[in-house]
């Protein structure tokens, strides 16, 4: 499988072979990458040492947001990238203005840690799941609670909402995945 992956990478121009340096300073490649005409060493080679990476990491921290009283468990970003929602073990959800880095709204209503979040594609709804077995639907701009669903018998761990905002999918520790019609709450 590895040889097939290497051939595919070479065809796609992704050949990035790793060069190893032995204690003697010689450059070496793994046996599979050596040509058949290369001579084999008479004594066992020293363990290879990878050449350190010289390129900097492609990201940098530009802002740190603080405000929850316990661990952050989930985040969701609005489609326009202006609002970040964060959920916490402190049973709250905070909304952050990413331009200023300040929290501007705090949602309370769950009775156990909030475990997952999703924001609708139109930016109108924020949906949260919790260890209290509920899914809560919030109006993102006003902060008001639109509704609460409590069909799960375990902690809600994952949420997704369809692009047309008609179907909500939730998954929980009770080994179920539930689909909800948001228009009828069924």
Question: Major sheet: size, sense and barrel closure?
Answer: 4 strands, antiparallel
In total, the number of strands is 14
Helix content: under 10%
Class from secondary-structure proportions: mainly beta
Shape: globular
pLDDT averaged over residues: 81
User: Please, how many helices?
Assistant: 1
Write a structural description.
This protein has 186 residues and is mainly beta. Helix content is 5%, strand content 38%. The chain has 1 helix and 14 strands; from the N terminus they run αββββββββββββββ. A 4-stranded antiparallel beta sheet has the order 4-5-6-7, with no helix packed on it. A 4-stranded antiparallel beta sheet has the order 8-9-10-11, with no helix packed on it. A hairpin with a 4-residue loop joins β6 and β7. The longest helix has 10 residues. About 15% of the residues have low confidence.
What topology does this entry show?
Blueprint (H helix, E strand, L loop, with lengths): L1 H10 L8 E2 L5 E2 L20 E2 L21 E6 L5 E6 L3 E6 L4 E7 L5 E6 L5 E6 L4 E5 L5 E5 L6 E6 L5 E6 L4 E5 L5
Antiparallel strand pairs: 1-2, 1-3, 4-5, 5-6, 6-7, 8-9, 9-10, 10-11, 12-13, 13-14
